[in-house]
Design goal:
Largest sheet: 2 strands, antiparallel
Order of helices and strands: HHHHHHHEEH
Helix content: over 70%
Strand content: under 5%
Number of strands: 2
């Protein structure tokens, strides 16, 4: 593979992570609920605010990597190192995007829905860029792939199961800590935005994937 092609792949993959992170930040700013994979770090950040959302995100990804090791019974694998690097990069990209949006104030419910829909679009495009870049590997997605491989469960069904589990654990922890499964007082982590992001991201990718491929695959010489 030519050096310029390798560089292009890393740039495309990194752009994908940036877009996904920005989508996460927008969903949090909407205060209507964030995507299932972001619910645990969001709730933990509400409880222990001294630790950033991004830090809790990469810590969660470490658990996903450990789960892969347990399922595959394989401790040493270069893919784990790539996922580890991706966890740190993605976590702190999320923190950076949250910081960039800290001055944005949204009170209109309609505008909050718009933020969620933009988050869906950015996430859909970002995921596709991550896939075609073939560089960064997010542990949250890879653990589903490994589970599907080990158990024979379809990836799509396993992904739905992961989303439900992460939301349920987050809601339970929020209930214990704050007396509400949605978050803490006026700060919402789980609500209609969570359902919208879970349901529409995959559907959006059916529309955006061909456009992303048309624009970016020529840059990767595919």
């Amino acid at each position: 593979m030519a050096k310029n092609n390798i560089a292009a792949r890393w740039l495309v993959g990194t752009l994908g992570l940036v877009l996904i992170a920005f989508g996460v930040a927008l969903s949090l700013k909407s205060n209507l609920g964030t995507a299932p994979p972001s619910c645990p770090p969001a709730v933990l950040n509400l409880k222990w605010g001294a630790i950033s959302f991004g830090t809790f995100t990469w810590m969660m990804h470490l658990l996903f990597i450990a789960a892969q090791m347990a399922m595959r019974r394989k401790v040493l694998d270069v893919h784990y190192l790539v996922q580890l690097a991706a966890a740190f990069v993605f976590g702190y990209l999320c923190d950076a995007c949250i910081w960039l949006l800290q001055g944005l104030e949204i009170s209109s419910y309609l505008m909050k829905i718009v933020l969620i829909l933009v988050a869906v679009l950015l996430t859909a495009v970002g995921i596709r860029l991550e896939v075609i870049g073939k560089t960064w590997i997010l542990a949250g997605d890879k653990v589903v792939d490994v589970f599907s491989e080990v158990t024979g469960v379809k990836f799509s069904n396993a992904k739905i199961g992961e989303d439900i589990l992460l939301v349920a654990l987050s809601a339970g922890f929020a209930w214990i800590c704050f007396g509400s499964p949605f978050g803490r007082s006026e700060v919402i982590v789980i609500r209609e935005g969570t359902l919208i992001l879970a349901a529409l991201t995959g559907l959006c990718m059916k529309l955006t994937d061909p456009l992303v491929d048309k624009v970016f695959k020529p840059l990767l010489h595919e």
